[in-house]
Amino acid sequence: MIPSNSKEKAFLCAQAALDHKAIDLVILSIQNLSSFTDYFVICSGNSDRQVQAIASHIEEKLAGEGLSPLGIEGKREGRWILLDYGEVVVHIFYHPVREFYDIERLWSDAPQVELPKQRRPRRAGS
């Protein structure tokens, strides 16, 4: 089922990331703060290989819904991968890199969006 709006697309990206054990996942609503996208989906992996696997799974899951990214950055290195789906931008970090860049602080005015209760994100170390 193709997502009918940008929030559903963000949830689909988040669910795909969680399928591959992404940690510390947050969704930020930046539609009132930005003109280039509506949502950031931000998550981490414990290794560059896990970061790459999370990104690949998101791509596969969304391709199955007929959605292709407008752009992909950083996939080869696996330290910080950005998947641009237009109204949703996914940031997948190797955990120490995420701490360094602290992207949530840069967008601290953006409200977090709760995932539906059936699937909540894991935290680092759990």
Describe this structure in words.
The protein is α+β, with helices and mostly antiparallel strands and about 130 residues long. The protein has one domain: Beta Polymerase, domain 2 (2-Layer Sandwich). Helix content is about 35%, strand content about 25%. It contains four helices and five strands; from the N terminus they run αββαβββαα. The protein has helices at about 5-20, 50-65, 95-100, 105, and strands at about 25-30, 40-45, 70-75, 80-85, 90-95. The chain has a five-stranded mixed sheet. The model has no long low-confidence stretch (mean pLDDT about 90).
Going by CATH, the architecture would be 2-Layer Sandwich
Rounded Rg: 13 Å
Mind telling me the CATH superfamily name?
Answer: Beta Polymerase, domain 2
Principal-axis shape: globular
Report the β-strand fraction as a percent range.
15-25%
Main sheet summary: 5 strands, mixed
Number of strands: 5
**CATH top level assignment:** Alpha Beta
